């Protein structure tokens, strides 16, 4: 049985554990990356693993490689998965990815099912482990004839608390540009029986304090369309369904300042000879304005929030440093600055925090909150928490597919006990396990 793993350079930490321990090392594996040095470095750690330069945009080469292997693990950007899936189906090969199953993947799944193939999606951290822990609770509740009345789920990949001394309280482990753009996403969720919408660019304004794990100083905001999980999770009885993202307090205010100034604009402009200060001035209307007028307009744009001005200064966005050649938009200038200053270095560590809260009504009328908390720390100069929590589920799922344990065909998510139970058991063997808490609600409001 042969496996090929297609990766791209900015996603390197999410593939580090794909061959971890016993999960795929007994099977010949080819690790393809556009960053050949990275592929060589990773492959050197494992038996039966061969590195290869592989350009995800070269369909001819991809098609040839797919035909030589039994399972394809794709860690390419999400928009590339559908055409990878089409090639897998044509070659009659199974596929595995950690990404959300978009509509195009679901359509490909219908073709795959006809040919007896599995396209396994959403088996990373979020999505992935979040599904599995949630479904285990839901199935336990249903087996006890309880009713799920509410469900909230929040997750964040963050620098460890000791490495948060910057205005964003955040460091990047993947492309800052892609990470930043998520702040512009729309969101939709169900709260107290009402469908709530957050418009494009308004996500940071929807942030709330998050105190479910008091030892961390966190805030949360909704993520994507939570209402789709009403059906996926079988939660037709729930009045509240919210899935969201966790960040340290201060993140949303800092990002709001960047959005309000206009640094998320993606229009092509000529920035030749510009400094970062020039860029911010131009976004306020005049690159050549004097400093007094500049500060007055800056404060006005930021609604007199002086802390946001401090944020811009500390990030180097009011400095006289030149914008690198080849940068052609405010967003790219911002991404380049953060790439140079706020990437998580190898000698620092990260932490993954996940928290589910399930509101249950039992047949006796008793109401209860069931909380599941998962906290995983990365290792300094070792595996990151994100590598463990994304890579290990992928490796475990690949092993299960190779051993014939996954019986479902088509576009498959880890929502059935036959998939999530053995995966969670093996994750627990690796030290990735939830902590459960239960609380009687009585007549208190709960989510």
The helix/strand series, from N terminus to C terminus, equals: EEHEHEHEHEHEHEEEEHEHHHHHEEHEHE
> Radius of gyration, rounded?
23 Å
End-to-end distance: 46 Å
Instruction: Please list the strands of the largest sheet in the order they lie side by side.
Output: 3-2-1-4-5-6-15
Number of strands: 16
What class, by secondary structure content? alpha/beta
Poorly predicted segments:
9-20
Helix count?
14
Average pLDDT metric: 89
Q: What percent of residues are in strands?
A: 15-25%
Write down the overall geometry: globular
Largest sheet: 7 strands, parallel
Task: Outline the structure in words.
It is a single chain. The chain has helices at 36-43, 59-67, 81-90, 103-114, 129-143, 176-181, 229-232, 251-261, 276-283, 291-301, 306-314, 330-341, 385-402, 417-429, and strands at 3-7, 29-33, 49-53, 71-74, 94-97, 118-120, 147-159, 187-191, 194-198, 208-210, 218-222, 240-248, 350-361, 367-377, 410-412, 435-440. The protein has 447 residues and is of the alpha/beta class. The strands form three sheets. It has a seven-stranded parallel sheet with strand order 3-2-1-4-5-6-15, sandwiched between helices. The protein starts with a strand and ends in a 7-residue tail after the last strand.
Keywords:
447 residues, alpha/beta, 7-stranded mixed β-sheet, 14 helices
